[in-house]
Amino acid sequence: MKPVKPSYHPFKEVEIIAQIADLKDVDYKNTLIITAIVELLVAKGVLTRKEILQKAEDLEMELSLDGIALDNSRFTSS
Fold first, then answer.
1. Is the pLDDT of residue 78 over 80?
2. pTM of the entire structure?
3. Is 3 helix (H, G, I), strand (E, B) or coil?
């Protein structure tokens, strides 16, 4: 018995492209809101740009370490 090839559906491709466009729009709006919040916090003297950048670096490092821990968990037995 021959394996059945999935049939090509152009509409499925269009749907995927539309989903990507939606994600880009959401990403843009989220970035805009975050930028506005940062600008307001700095303008009001609540936080400095240096504090915000330091926290971003800390979070990035933490997330990187979490990712490494998750990757390494594949090799340890429970």
1. no
2. 0.64
3. coil
